From TrEMBL:
The gene is cas1. InterPro entries: Cas1, CRISPR-assoc_Cas1, CRISPR-assoc_Cas1_C, CRISPR-assoc_Cas1_N, CRISPR-assoc_Cas1_NMENI. The keyword Acetylation does not apply. Mn(2+) binds at E147, H203, E218. This is CRISPR-associated endonuclease Cas1. GO terms for biological process: defense response to virus; maintenance of CRISPR repeat elements. Pfam families: Cas_Cas1 (PF01867).
Length: 299
């Protein structure tokens, strides 16, 4: 089972050799078993990949994440759908009843807000109990947009003077980097389960190839938020670019731990569990079967 990621920030030549990823740099050569790798972040313009390696990555279900000149994740490569029940899973998506999708969205947003509350608690910020109470008011489909109300409350307590749309804010740069890696991990898991990620439960943009990933990633976001908060430390947040250490930290978000039921698992595994459970929830029309990661509070 794949359990690790590769984050490249220096010039390198990547190729396939005996079922391994061969990384050649000026300092030497490193080989990693392809079957152990779940994601690769190409965070340098001086990296080359052989076509044989890219083909092998697609066969193995490895997601490739590419960044732009500002070191912001800008695209992903995923395998074509290879699930043995591809047609059946696609039919589940298309035939899903509106009532089931609304209740699934309710569960997703409730868990997201509860994880936001837990994030405040873990980081010793104020009013986590109030946010947990807000989660109780999410109805199927969230017609009152409780998610947005909770977000305004949450960001004000987590970061204080903070505007989520400010692209120059270092905190936003960290969040966007981590969210992109987390989203790619969720998309990878969905494709592995046979889903068509363009067709979502709530997100339905015609221009978005990852609507379903954007649905399922929501409860994972507070994990990214906490990682960004701790990575930032005491630095001034209003300016500056991501450092190499920042990017390395945020690229590792899929290795963070969460709780799914009684099990403590990495977010990489949690994404796989969420995707598999979504299939069961749609098949049996029971949203309660959806398994989402829980960020544990400090008691």
């Amino acid at each position: 089972m794949a359990w690790r990621g590769l984050h490249l920030t220096q010039a390198a030549r990547l190729s396939l050799a005996d079922g391994q990823v061969c990384v050649r740099q000026d300092a030497g050569e490193v080989r990693l078993a392809l079957e152990d790798i779940a994601w690769i972040v190409i965070d340098t313009p001086q990296a080359t990949l052989s076509s044989a390696l890219m083909s092998a990555c697609m066969d193995a279900g490895v997601v490739l994440i590419f960044t732009d000149e500002r070191h912001t994740p800008s695209g992903v490569a995923l395998p074509f759908h290879r699930h043995h029940r591809q047609g059946a899973i696609a039919k589940l998506q298309f035939d899903a009843k509106d009532g089931v999708k609304r209740r699934l969205w309710q569960a997703i947003i409730r868990r997201k807000i509860l994880n936001q509350a837990a994030s405040l608690s873990v980081l010793n910020r104020q009013n986590s109990e109030t946010l947990a109470e807000i989660a109780r008011h999410v109805e199927p489909g969230d017609p009152e947009n409780v998610e947005a109300r909770a977000a305004r409350f949450y960001w004000g307590r987590l970061f204080g003077d903070f505007v989520r749309d400010d692209e120059g804010d270092l905190r936003n740069k960290m969040l966007n980097y981590g969210y992109a890696v987390m989203r790619a991990g969720v998309a990878r898991a969905l494709v592995a389960c046979g889903f068509l990620p363009a067709f979502g439960l709530k997100h339905e943009s015609a221009a978005n190839a990852f609507n379903l990933a954007d649905d399922i990633v929501e409860p994972f976001r507070p994990f990214v938020d906490g990682l960004a908060w701790t990575t930032l430390g005491d630095r001034v947040a209003k300016n500056g670019d991501l450092t190499l250490d920042d990017r390395r930290a945020m690229a590792g978000v899929l290795l963070m731990n969460g709780r799914v039921g009684d099990a403590k698992v990495s977010l990489l595994v949690a994404a796989e569990m969420a995707s598999a459970s979504l299939c069961r929830a749609l098949e049996f029309e029971k949203p309660a079967l959806l398994e989402l990661p829980e960020l544990e509070r400090i008691s």
